[in-house]
Design a protein that fits this description.
The protein is α/β, with parallel strands linked by helices. The protein is 46% helix and 15% strand.
Length: 231
């Protein structure tokens, strides 16, 4: 069975994607900081009779990243790395004039540095896979100038660029940056707690990710809603 590492997998998009891959027979290594929610997610995913390893920890910790790859190796290798774990930089979001620099550093460490560190750790196994792929979960804030989203958006823009260059440097892999679009997630609620407008559930954009894995288009940046609508 193919093996995927998914960060930020205890809830939201990460959990929805894990459940969809498990339903397709993928074995999974799941990461999140909260041990309780992660274990709950792993138990739900394991109901599909696939092997699931849940490792709580912080993706900014090099030892934790190494542990994720070791767990995947024990399941047979690494066919997919999904960098979904994200940090906002401030909760709720604030304008750049008030953005704590420590918060910006945290966003860059989680969203960019840790994402690259995990890929570096997994790269030997990804290269061995007949269908090795990397998915970097981006944001429309990486490409649009939304007030208060500057720090988070800058980190996601940097992630997009890393994904683009990785794709050029590793032509044997598929490397996709994916903007999932608006979703009802805890991350968004923490970012803009006063926004009560209804938003789609993360499961609604999962078909976009599955389409990438099925059709394996050229590496690049994709908007999930367009992939879903184009089916």
């Amino acid at each position: 069975m193919p093996v995927a590492i998914i960060t930020g997998a205890s809830k939201g998009l990460g959990r929805a994607l894990a459940e969809a891959l498990a339903a397709r027979g993928w074995d999974l290594v799941l990461d999140a900081r909260g041990a309780g929610p992660l274990e709950e997610a792993a138990e739900a995913v394991a109901g599909h009779s696939t092997r699931v390893t849940a490792l709580p920890g912080d993706v900014t910790d090099a030892g934790h990243r190494a542990g994720l790859v070791t767990a995947a190796r024990q399941l047979g290798g690494v066919d997919l790395v999904v960098s979904n774990a994200s940090a906002l930089g401030a909760e709720p979001l604030v304008r750049l004039a008030e953005l704590p620099l420590e918060g910006l550093r945290r966003a860059l460490e989680v969203n960019v540095v840790a994402a690259l560190g995990l890929v570096q750790e997994a790269l030997p196994l990804l290269r061995e896979s007949p269908a090795g792929a990397v998915i970097a979960v981006s944001s429309d804030a990486a490409a649009e100038a939304y007030e208060t989203w500057g720090g988070y958006g800058a980190s996601k823009a940097a992630l997009d660029q890393l994904a683009a260059v990785l794709g050029a440097e590793e032509p044997g892999l598929r490397v996709w940056a994916v903007d999932p679009g608006d979703m009802a997630t805890d991350l968004y609620a923490a970012a803009v707690p006063d926004d009560d407008d209804p938003r789609p559930e993360p499961a609604g954009v999962v078909p976009a990710f599955l389409r990438l894995l099925d059709e394996r288009p050229a590496g690049g940046r994709y908007a999930a809603p367009s992939l879903v609508e184009g089916r």
